[in-house]
Amino acid sequence: MVHPRKELCALGMIHGGWLVAKILKREGIDTVFTLSGGHIAAIYDGCLREDIRVVDTRHEQAAVHAAEGWAKCTRKPGVALLTAGPGVTDGITGVANAYLASSPVLVIGGAAPLSLWDRGALQEMNQLDLLRPITKWARTVHETSRIAEYVSIAFRQMLSGKPGPTFLEIPMDVLNNFVDTEQYFDPGEPSYYRPGGRSAPEPDHVARAAELLEKAQRPVIMAGTAVWWCDAAAPLRRLAERIQAPVFLNGAGRGCLPPDHPLFFSASRRKALEGADTILAIGTRMDFRLNHGQPPLIPKEANLLWFDLAGEDVGVNRGASVGLAGDVGISMTQVAEAARQCDGGEWLEYLRGQERKGLERDVAGLNSDATPIHPLRLCRELRDFIDEETTTIADGGDIASYGGRVINVARPGYWLDAGPMGTLGAGTGFALAAQIARPGQRVLILHGDGAFGLNGMEFESMARQNIPVVSVIGNDGAWGQIKHPQKALIGHATAAELRPGIRYDRMVEALGGHGELVERPEDIRPALERAFASGLPACVNVLIDPDKPYSRSTNVAV
Description:
Blueprint: H1 4-10, E1 13-15, H2 16-26, E2 31-34, H3 41-49, E3 53-56, H4 60-74, E4 78-82, H5 86-90, H6 92-100, E5 105-111, H7 128-131, E6 137-140, H8 147-159, E7 166-171, H9 172-176, E8 178-180, H10 190-193, H11 203-215, E9 219-223, H12 225-229, H13 233-243, E10 247-249, H14 269-275, E11 278-282, E12 303-308, E13 322-325, H15 328-338, H16 345-360, H17 363-366, H18 375-385, E14 391-395, H19 398-406, E15 415-416, H20 426-437, E16 443-448, H21 449-454, H22 458-464, E17 470-475, H23 480-490, H24 504-510, E18 514-518, H25 524-533, E19 538-543
Parallel strand pairs: 2-3, 2-4, 4-5, 5-7, 6-7, 9-10, 9-11, 11-12, 12-13, 14-15, 14-16, 16-17, 17-19, 18-19
Antiparallel strand pairs: 1-8
């Protein structure tokens, strides 16, 4: 007997879940992330029919983080499929993280059957109002024949201007219903329903920026996440070399200038910004990481040349001497062409001296043989171990800040962190996606012990699906970024302690991976080599000194 669904397909009928998958495939989506749920089973069927890989997680938050990690690694949209009710609510933190990081993620949420709305159906709730404040666009599809149209709109909204997450709610019966393949609305190829061009800044603004650079004596470039999204590492390099300005990187901008470039700086940022007369903020926000654009870090009298994707992001917290809204790669290229060739001279020599002093301050910690292990020594071992094709992910508080200070990646897109939301636990999903996006390359997470615990069960997901990722835990038995300020302010720590020495390595072994405990600094590298050689998801659990807090005054580097 032929299954009735197969008979309908043979007669030119297609169900809603298959329609979803067809548009995803047309958009170049070959992998989606999910936690299995009945409300969205039809989309899984469609994905199988369209040869789209379905990667499942143990928590919906991790699925959305994985979708964002996919976007961060590929510059292509990530897609997460969430079942109704708690499936959607579990994913909200991941959506919020993508929203603040301006990451292109499409989240498709299941919902109770439309025919049963307001009648008390299983997991029926108003999901749209929860998602609207943390997405660029959120809608419900009410008719199966319009699914393809709405999916295409979601991509257009997600990728137009500044990228960001979108949410599409599709009730269960809308997904399960069939339509004639000749009657449903077909939006056509992506080029038909969303523009693919890049926007350029106003010519007058380019000329004004070049004029200000003509007068600059102490320029500084601060480049961030939009440089990555615009694939603008080469324009950044050309601009820096043209005006001979030191370059500091944050967020996804890390790796857009290799650490061996003579204009790459990292340890003298405060001195550079405080002494600058002209600051080029390129695709980075004047948020907490830059003291909200205010003195003493950002001098009141300094000219601020602000490059960003969206005009509404220019001038936030600090007025701009000139704002260049549009693709930051185009903006940098045009400014470099309009500006004269400069000589960094005394300014660069002064900053190189400050850079040496900044690096020297860490020498003792980097080379420490003490036990428990100094967190700087752990980060130095990681820095010396990784290669250009290692995706390095920072997921934690103090240990992630130490990692950002010590570890420099040589290629754009190979450093991942949560971004402005600072979501602990995001790194596990990022890593899962990175390994799928970059098969055969190393993926390493620098975890705090608190951050590891938030999504540690995903090591079962990785073991089951053969996704080898290595987590290195800086285990200090505390929420260190909270504990130490509490003790300094009120003399004790509350709700900030964890049990010392927890064997997270054994937990990963129990989930089907490889695990090792490391208590001496000389054992870190051999443990790393064994972890990667195992070919399994792995945990290198490193016991670090609980009394080495990261300086709060400089905790702005990640």
